[in-house]
Design brief:
775 residues, alpha+beta, Beta-Lactamase, 23 helices, elongated, kinase, histidine kinase, HATPase_dom, EC 2.7.13.3
Length: 775
């Protein structure tokens, strides 16, 4: 018996629904097989039946003029209970069928033989059966032929199902990215709708032509060479490229070129995936223009691996014509003038060693072309979930012209002071200046304020001059300014920035203040105040920083998405190729059917992956990723099914110990990627002396969900590789097919779902990854 009980029957009915064959139109291919069965078996009636929950339906009927019957009077319902030919030689005298209306009446069945239609996973959909209205008997040869023909019906059903799924894949891919497939000579074999839209050409004008004949991407010779170098070694190529359609429309894509190699490491096909990046490129372009307008540049230092990042604006400030090799970005300290270098390096060392506050510095540099400039540098930190600093980043602004202006103003003040203590002279000199100027005596009483200064504070000359003190003017801000006032009264020039809320509470203004002491006869009589409104510059700086953060986040999501697509497609492409080769060389029909079953499993997994990737495309511009309730057990099982070939080749055992009812709110595509990466790594880095044993467990508490993935593989030397374990492009065991993105990718995905990942490992013993998701 193939199916026992309600659970077995439910699985069989699910298989019937999967093939979508019930109530379809008559098709010649099925009628030909039924006709051949009737002729070989010498019977007037032959049927291809599908047994549903309450009926049996005839996909093909030769010699019978009805389309379906009730299941409770069906001979085929009995035939599907076994896997071999089911035969009823004398139904009139058989207690099970003697009262059957098709025996006692039309078509007066006197002989029945049915061969079950069995799927690769053992589910019987129905039968290919022959019926005679007179006493009859099949020879052994006829019985074998009937069984062979039933397998042919099953093969036809599988091919029809695969064709439907292939059409679905193409529709799904059209929603995700522009996809094209090339042969080893770079001739198009396939181009989906989005690819055709990019080119502005219909598919029939693309397929069969060489890539060079389709003017789509504006790719330089250097990039073409890098593509060839990468794919010829079996590696995936990634870059952002410009697309130019036949009509001249311009767009940008994140391009991935994936090679498919045979056993001899020769390229058989190339898959290209283009994910639209036009909005990101435009955002970056606006960011660069904003940098140029504000004479600003951005920088970052990764504190874990020492890698540096400079924006285009910073390169321009230092005097470079174009961006140098990203792997050889110079240190900013190389351009600091000698007299400022020691203090700048000491400041950076202090923050790296524990001073985690943001800071600002003014330093002078010598540019590449030998020009001395004054730069205003800001810095801030990024941290991991445990508060450990990961990177220091900031901005560099060219304030050379501003410093020159300040120097001129200071000289003007000195000149005014040398003339006399005459308020009239000071007023004539300063009142028409756009800069804000004031003079306060040593008792902190205002003796002079020009129009710009009065307007800034919203005061009239009458209520300000000789009446108000700086304590009264500043109010709550006085305590913040007091250290600078004390400093200038001690005879020292003071310079600082200040954030000032507007009186109506509807905004904030930013100022750069300079206090100059007025010294007569060696004593400080008061101080001059120069205030510059830098609100536009500060708002622009904030906008640039926010734009930079958005660019980085969008790039991170697109890289993450491209990595998921290429990693998962590579897995499916590899497994698909292996199974197709096994199908071709299989001698037995049973082996071919088994391979078709594997193809169906891959197709189902690919279908789910496509749906999840579509979700990422829908949400990639949102601040929060999409999270839905997931059954974790099913996602682990799908990863195991996808890795079927790798598991078989390595003789691996994977235990999915997670409760099949455990629900977790997560992102479907991310969870697919996380389990696929961890399990494939556990197989890939197995120990040479033992078969892989991998276990997946879960512990669910009120505060968190804890997943553990343990293996008995090679293990990792954490003392040597612990710090860089989750770094991008880091590899440890020398595998030539390792990309170094897997662990970097999964950590990013885990952290985006409010999770953390930890590792414990011992060389030659194994590794345990512990994933914690807070609730």
């Amino acid at each position: 018996m193939l199916h026992k009980g309600i659970e077995g029957e439910n699985k069989r009915l699910e298989a019937v629904k999967l093939y979508e064959i019930l109530d379809t139109i008559q098709e010649q291919e099925y009628d030909d097989i039924a006709t051949l069965a009737a002729e070989i078996c010498k019977t007037p009636i032959a049927l291809i039946t599908i047994v549903d929950e309450n009926r049996q339906w005839f996909k093909s009927k030769i010699g019978l003029d009805i389309s379906e019957t009730s299941r409770d009077v069906s001979f085929c319902a009995r035939a599907i209970e076994g896997s071999e030919l089911f035969e009823v030689t004398d139904p009139v005298n058989d207690p099970s069928f003697a009262d059957n209306p098709f025996v006692t009446g039309y078509p007066n069945i006197r002989y029945y033989a049915g061969a079950p239609l069995v799927t690769s996973d053992g589910q019987s959909l129905g039968t290919l059966c022959v019926i005679h209205t007179q006493s009859h008997q099949l020879t052994d040869s006829q019985k074998r032929s009937l069984a062979i023909l039933s397998r042919s019906v099953m093969t036809l059903l599988e091919l029809k199902l695969n064709q439907k799924q292939t059409n679905f894949f193409r529709s799904a891919l059209d929603e995700i990215a522009a996809v094209a497939v090339f042969d080893k000579e770079s001739n198009f074999e396939y181009a989906n709708e989005k690819y055709c839209a990019l080119t502005g050409l219909p598919e029939h004008e693309i397929v069969g032509k060489n890539y060079s004949a389709i003017a789509l991407a504006d790719i330089s010779e250097d990039v073409n060479k890098r593509i060839f170098d990468a794919v010829s070694k079996g590696n995936i190529f990634r870059d952002t490229i410009k697309n130019i359609s036949k009509k001249g429309d311009v767009s940008w894509s994140n391009l991935s070129v994936i090679p498919y190699l045979n056993e001899s490491k020769e390229i058989i096909k190339l898959f290209t995936i283009r994910v639209d990046a036009t909005s990101v490129v435009q955002l970056i372009d606006r960011f660069h223009k904003a940098e140029k307008l504000s004479r600003l540049g951005c920088w970052e230092i990764n504190l874990l691996n020492g890698k540096r990042y400079w924006s285009e604006g910073l390169y321009a400030l230092i005097g470079f014509d174009k961006i140098t090799n990203p792997d050889s970005i110079p240190s900013l300290s190389d351009y600091i003038v000698p007299e400022h270098r020691a203090s700048a390096e000491a400041s950076l060392k202090n923050v790296v060693n524990g001073d985690l506050t943001s800071g600002m510095d003014e330093i002078d540099i010598i540019t590449v072309d030998g020009v001395r400039k004054t730069m205003f540098i800001t810095k801030e930190f990024t941290f991991d979930s445990k508060g450990k600093p990961l990177a220091i980043r900031g901005t560099v602004q060219d304030i050379t012209e501003k410093k020159k202006t300040e120097k001129i103003l200071k000289a003007s003040f000195e000149e005014v002071k040398s003339l006399s203590d005459s308020r009239e002279v000071l007023a004539l000199t300063a009142d028409n200046l756009s800069a804000m100027l004031a003079y306060w005596d040593k008792d902190l009483v205002c003796r002079f304020a020009n129009s710009a200064y009065l307007q800034w504070f919203g005061r009239s000359r009458e209520e300000m001059i000789n009446k108000i003190t700086i304590i009264e003017l500043l109010g709550p801000l006085y305590e913040k300014n007091k250290p600078y006032i004390d400093g200038v009264l001690a005879g020292h020039v003071q310079t600082f920035e200040r954030e000032i809320p507007l009186p109506d509470g509807k905004g904030t203004r930013y100022s750069l203040a300079n206090y100059f002491p007025h010294i007569v006869g060696g004593e400080v009589n008061g101080f001059f105040v120069h205030v510059a409104d830098i609100t536009p510059q500060k708002l622009l700086e904030v906008e640039i920083r926010e734009t930079s953060d958005k660019v980085k986040e969008q790039n991170k999501r697109l890289v993450n998405f491209a990595n998921i697509v290429t990693h998962n497609l590579k897995s499916y492409a590899h497994n698909l190729g292996v199974i197709l080769e096994l199908y071709i060389i299989a001698d037995k029909q049973s082996e071919k059917e088994r391979m078709l079953g594997f193809l169906q499993e891959i197709a189902e997994g690919f279908t789910t992956t496509i749906v999840h990737l579509s979700d990422i495309v829908d949400t990639q511009n949102r601040l929060e990723i999409k999270r839905v309730p997931l059954v974790l057990y099913d996602y682990i099982k799908r990863a195991i099914d996808t890795l079927h070939i790798e598991i078989k080749n390595s003789n691996a055992t994977i235990a999915n110990n997670v409760d099949s009812h455990l629900i977790f709110d997560g992102n479907p595509a991310y969870m697919d990627s996380i389990f696929l990466n961890f399990l494939s790594n556990a197989i890939k880095y197995k120990h040479a002396d033992r078969d892989p044993i991998i276990t997946v467990d879960a512990q669910n508490t009120e505060s968190e969900l804890v997943l553990t993935i343990a293996d008995n593989g090679r293990g990792i030397n954490l003392a040597t590789n612990g710090e860089k374990l989750f770094g991008m492009y880091e590899t440890f065991h020398g595998n030539t097919d390792a990309t170094g993105i897997g662990l970097y990718l999964v950590r990013s995905q885990i952290e985006s779902m409010n999770g953390t990942v930890e590792i414990s490992s011992e060389e030659n013993v194994g590794t345990i990854f512990t994933i914690r998701f807070k609730k």
